[in-house]
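hiii, so i know i said id send this last week but things got crazy w the move. better late than never?? heres the sequnce for the chain we talked about at the cafe, plus the structure i predicted for it. fair warning i was half asleep when i ran it
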Amino acid sequence: MKIKHIFFDLDRTLWDFETNSHNTLEELFSTFHLKEKGIPNADKFIQIYKVRNEKLWELYRAGKISQIDLRRERFQRTLADFGIRDFALAEAIGEQYISICPKKNQLLPSAIEVLEYLSKKYKLHIITNGFHKVQHIKLKYSNLTKYFDAIITSEKVGVMKPDTKIFDFALETANAKSSESVYVGDDLKVDIIGCQNCGIDGIYFNPNSEKHTEKVAFEISCLSQLKEIF
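okay and structure toks below
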């Protein structure tokens, strides 16, 4: 059956999370004078933060901590690793991170070009595990909102990818059939296996050519390759 709907992940698929987050953390390192507080340099600060943040996200995805816990503890734990136990400072850094980072607008290569091309032929939608308000800010400041009909966030649905319920909800919201839809995402387990369990063909965006043994409908290393598929 002919494809009518293309669903996209947002972070690390269209919106360049790594660059935008890194630049924000560099700013915060300077703004809060963290070197003077005992952190050697911004790179070390960012390195430790990434480890702490990812571990907390794993707990959040597993339903073991809340959004509030995640946001509060990631900078508390990062600072604590440098011997800094200042909850007020951690909270202030966290608030600034949430305020600044979503407004960064670096996208993955060819993102706009591909969305312009695809939006003329297909209905485009977003399915993201990110927080609802934050993801909408990212879309707005990156000038992406106009390309998408349905924008589905796990926070609003109440379940996270790879749970099939979020994909079912997205199909219903977009008035789409699984057989007429594909999903583009960078996380093999969360995005691709998740959507394929719901009957949606997955297009695995694998820019680093990571090795795997999963069967996927398509695999691309650059977003521009979508123009070759569609």
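btw DSSP finds ten helices and six strands in the chain. thought thatd interest u
miss u guys!!
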